[in-house]
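Batch job 17 of 40 flagged for manual review because the log was empty.
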Amino acid sequence: MNIGIVQQSNTSDRTANMERLRRSIRQCAAQGAALVVLPELHNGLYFCQTEDAALFGQAETIPGPSTEYFGAVARETGAVLVLSLFEKRAPGLYHNTAVVIERDGSIAGKYRKMHIPDDPAYYEKFYFTPGDQGFLPVETSAGKLGVLVCWDQWYPEAARLMAMRGAEALIYPTAIGWESTDTEEEKKRQLTAWITVQRGHAIANGLPVITVNRVGHEPDPSVQTNGIRFWGNSFVAGPQGELLAELPTDKEGIQVVAVDKDRTENVRRWWPFFRDRRIDAYDGLTERFLD
């Protein structure tokens, strides 16, 4: 499976952002990509730096304008696309939703982000209701895709449940970066932890991991912080955690990466973690905390 990853820096011009994404998808498809993954909330700026009710106006239905636009791109290029959209489900009910577009332009499935952060400059709980569809892979012509979103990437339970339901790859559209007042040492620790935990999901589940992040600086409209510098570093890891591709920290980029789905079978034979799981002893995992 040839996978295209698109790392982009956005502006407030949503039309221009989407046009640049279209060009990048075309480039990936021209290089043989059967699947192209875009970053989290890729059409515009990362609006969750502030709590502003007027920004709910950016949300859209699914199906809607973006699925129609990128559906046409999928039909043109013949590639399966993983989108990340601000979904308006009903009045007052909104989700952070990944949508998978089949190569014929139809909607193959969607995933509503389950873990919602609420940190300085990441006020997502103000905007997004946690997902209610569970951890279900999406069947496509490019494979069975375990699509999750950003903050989900810190949770091994989410990756495991996708793997247990037959996902052939774990995919994370992402928007994560640094606040400028963090020390260089702290920035390095954050980035290293982010890469390490996801490579761990690849190893523990014997699956490739595809993570696509935003890049570039986006100012804080409230001027309460210095904004976010999204750290890029989009990457693809193989089923033993090996890095197959890694994009830069400080600039846009695309890359098409060949992933051998058949390796999952071999890796799981060599390291039979699924065989040796003690499912009779894991009851406590469904508790909030064990005193």
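Reviewer: the log was empty due to a logging misconfiguration, but the result itself is present. Residues 184-205 form the longest helix (22 residues). Unflagging and moving on to job 18.
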